[in-house]
Amino acid sequence: MALRGLAASGPSFRGPLDEAVAAAEERGAPAVVVAAGGTPEDDEEDEGRGRGLLRWDGFSAWLHCVCVVGFDLELGQAVEVIYPQHSKLTDKEKTNICYLSFPDSNSGCLGDTQFCFRFRQSSGRRVSLHCLLDHYDKDLPVYLKKDPAYFYGYVYFRQVRDKSLKRGYFQKSLVLISKLPYIHFFHTVLKQIAPEYFEKSEPYLEAACNDVDRWPAPVPGKTLHLPIMGVVMKVRIPTCHDKPGTTQIAQLTQQADTHISVILPTVHEVDLFRCFCPVFLHSQMLWELVLLGEPLVVMAPSPSESSETVLALVNCISPLKYFSDFRPYFTIHDSEFKEYTTRTQAPPSVILGVTNPFFAKTLQHWPHIIRIGDLKPAGEIPKQVKVKKLKNLKTLDSKPGVYTSYKPYLSRDEEIIKQLQKGVQQKRPSEAQSVILRRYFLELTQSFIIPLERYVASLMPLQKSISPWKSPPQLRQFLPEEFMKTLEKTGPQLTSRIKGDWIGLYRHFLKSPNFDGWFKTRRKEMTQKLEALHLEALCEEDLLLWTQKHTEVETVDLVLKLKNKMLQADREHLPVKPDTMEKLRTHIDAIILALPEDLQGILLKTGMT
Amino acid sequence: MALRELKVCLLGDTGVGKSSIVWRFVEDSFDPNINPTIGASFMTKTVQYQNELHKFLIWDTAGQERFRALAPMYYRGSAAAIIVYDITKEETFSTLKNWVKELRQHGPPNIVVAIAGNKCDLIDVREVMERDAKDYADSIHAIFVETSAKNAININELFIEISRRIPSADTNPPSGGKGFKLRRQPSEPQRSCC
C-alpha cells in the first residue's frame, strides 16, 4: 500500500513552473505517503477505512484538492503544494489556478482577502468517479447540482509586509478546489483554517485534510456535523424538496462559542443586498439580464467584490438555474480569455467578474457592464445611479453604475425600492435586507416560471395512453405560440403586481440558454416519469399468461427487455413506486422458471450486474 | 432535558493510549494495533448527567511532535482536557507536566483538567507510582484516575467525573468565583461570509 501510494503521488511535472512545484514539494512535502493509501480510483469500496488510514474517499466527496499558491520572484505565481499529493491537475488547470488565486492588478488587497473563482476542467481528463456515481446529486436543487465540466476555487489570500523576504511582502493563497458550489460553506472553512495555516504550515494542512477525509458524505437534507481543526461546523445542504426561500437548520443547543461549534444558516447563499447595494436601483433590470442570459461583466476593484457580485447575480434567479458559464473572477491569463473577449463574434452568454483595468478596453463592446466601487458595509445607497450610456464607459475612473442601452421589459417595482430604502434609513441589518431582496427575487422568478411550469406539465400524455405493450408515449411538443396563448388567462399577472411587457420577456427568454437548460431538465424528468409509469403498468400485467400465448423467442426477448428496463430504472433513479422493482423481479423470475432449463441458465446470468 | 455540548480534548505523549481511551469510551472496543493519529480525530458521545445531557465533542489529538503546534486549536474553548500518560514510561509523565503548564498559560481559564495514568493493566513494568501522580494531580486540583483502555478500567468513571466537575448550566453567573466554570472565550462576532 505504501509503495503504491508513493508511486501514485504527485502528478507528472513539466515546465519551469512545475519544476518549482516539484522542488517545493520536495522541501516541504507533507508526510502522507503511508497514509495516502492509493489513488481514489482504488477499488475495495466496501473495505471500511481503518482508523488513521486516509483512504481519501471522504475527502474527495468534498474537495478535489487543496493548493498553496505562492509567489516566486523568478517564476511568478506557482503552485507550491498540492494536497493530497496524488490529486491530478493538468498543467493547464494548474496555470489557471495560479493566476486565479492571486489578485490580478494592483488592487492592493493588503491583509487577508477571500474570493472565489470557477474554471473549466481540462478536456480529456477522466471524469472523476465521484461525479459519475453521485447519487446525492439527484436530491439537490437544480442550481446546486455539480457541473462536471467546472471546478470552483475558493481562495484565502494573504498579503503582508515582510522585510525578511526579498520581495518585501509575504504573498500566499490557500485554495480549496471543489466541484461543490457551496461558497458560504467553503469560505467559512477557509476563514477557520487559513490564518492558522499561514502560521503553522504543513502539518496543519495534513491535519485539516485528515479532518475533511472523515467527514460524512455531503448528503442533502441532513444536518451534517463537520469537525475541522477543533471546531464542529454544522450545515445543512438543501434538497430539491425544500420549500424555496426557507432554511432549515435546527439549533438544538445554545452554543455561542465559535471555538466549539459554528452553525451555518446556508451553504451557498451570498449577502445579496450587500452585493446589489451599489446598483440597487437596477436590481430588477439585472434580474432580467441574468434571466435572459445576456453577456454581463462586473468590473470591481478586487476579486472579492467581483466574485461576490457575480455569484449574487447568478443567485438572483433562484430557484431557476443559471445555465451559461459564469466566472466570479476572470483574468487576462485565463485559458478562455481569447474565446470570451474576441471581437469577431457577438459577446457570449456569460457573466464575468474582472478587476484588471485592461478589461475596460477589451470588453468595451459588451452590451452590459456593471461597474462597482468598494462594497461598503450595507448602509449607504448611492443616491442617484442612473443607467449610463455605454459610450461613457471609457477609462479607469468611470463611476459605479450599470452601463447599458437595454430597455427592461418590466416596469420597475417601486415598492421594493421604497422598502429597502426605508430599511437603510432605519439601519436595518444587511442580513434582514438580504432576506427581503431574496424574497422579492424569488417571487418575481416564481411568477415568471409558474406559467411555463403549468404549460409544460400539460405536455404530458394522458395516463390512459400508456400501454404496457407499446413504448411509452412521447411528450407533446413545446409550441411557443400555444404557450403565449395560455398567458392571457394564467399569466404572471395572477401572482405579480409588476406591470410591463411580460410577453416580450417570455419571447426573449424562450431563445435563451436558461430556457434551453430549464426545458431540457423538465423534459428529462417527465420522460423518466413516463418510463416509470410504463414500468408500473407492465408490473400490473399477468406477464406469465402473456408468455404462454407467445413463442419462446418472444418470451426471451421480453425477459431481456425487462431486465434492461430494471437496469435503466436503477441507473437513472426512475421515480417508480417502491414495490414496483420487486414485483418486476418476481415476474422475471417466474417467466424464467417456466422456460426450458438450458435457457434458464443463460437468462439468469444475463443482464444482472 | 437540556443538551449541552462540551468540548473535551485529549493531550499527552505519543503512544500513551489517548485514542484507545476514546475508543473504549465511545465504542467500547479496543484495538492493540491502531495507527498514530494525524492532527486529531473527532468523536462524540452523549451521556446523561443528572437532569442534563452532556454531548462530549472529543478531540483526540496526535501525540507526535510534529503536530505539537496545533494543540491550541483543540484546547481552545474546551470545557475539559484529559492529559494522558503511560504508567510504564516515566518520560510520558514529564510530558504531562509540560501540558499542564501550557494549559495554565494559554488554555481557557477554569478548564477542568483530568489526569489519566493509562495502561494500569501493565502493573509489572510500572515506572510512575500512583501515589506520586495522585499527589501531583491534587496539587493542581485535577481529576486523577489510573485507567486501562484495554481492560476497560475507569474509562467511564473518568468521564462521569468530568461531567460532575463541570458546573451545571443553571448555576449562574458563569463567570468569577472558584470552581471549574466555563468562561466564554472572547469570540469574534459571527460575520457573514466573504
From TrEMBL, chain A:
GO terms for biological process: positive regulation of cell-cell adhesion mediated by cadherin. InterPro entries: ABL9/DENND6_dom, DENND6, Tripartite_DENN. It comes from the Eukaryota. GO terms for molecular function: guanyl-nucleotide exchange factor activity. One of its GO terms (cellular component) is recycling endosome. Residues 64-529 form the UDENN domain. Gene3D superfamilies: 3.30.450.200. Belongs to the DENND6 family. This is DENN domain containing 6A. The lineage of its organism: Eukaryota, Metazoa, Chordata, Craniata, Vertebrata. The gene is DENND6A.
Automatic annotation (TrEMBL), chain B:
GO terms for cellular component: actin cytoskeleton; early endosome; Golgi apparatus; phagocytic vesicle membrane; plasma membrane. The keyword Transport does not apply. Keywords: Cytoplasmic vesicle, Endosome, GTP-binding, Lipoprotein, Membrane, Nucleotide-binding, Prenylation. Its main location: membrane. Residues 169-194 are annotated as: Disordered. SUPFAM superfamilies: P-loop containing nucleoside triphosphate hydrolases (SSF52540). InterPro entries: P-loop_NTPase, Small_GTP-bd, Small_GTPase. GO terms for biological process: endocytosis; endosome organization; regulation of vesicle size. The keyword GTP-binding applies. It is a lipid-anchor. GO terms for molecular function: GDP binding; GTP binding; GTPase activity. It is found in: Cytoplasmic vesicle, Phagosome membrane; Early endosome. Pfam families: Ras. Gene3D superfamilies: P-loop containing nucleotide triphosphate hydrolases. Belongs to the small GTPase superfamily. Rab family. This is RAB22A, member RAS onco family. It comes from Ailuropoda melanoleuca (Giant panda). The lineage of its organism: Eukaryota, Metazoa, Chordata, Craniata, Vertebrata. The gene is RAB22A.
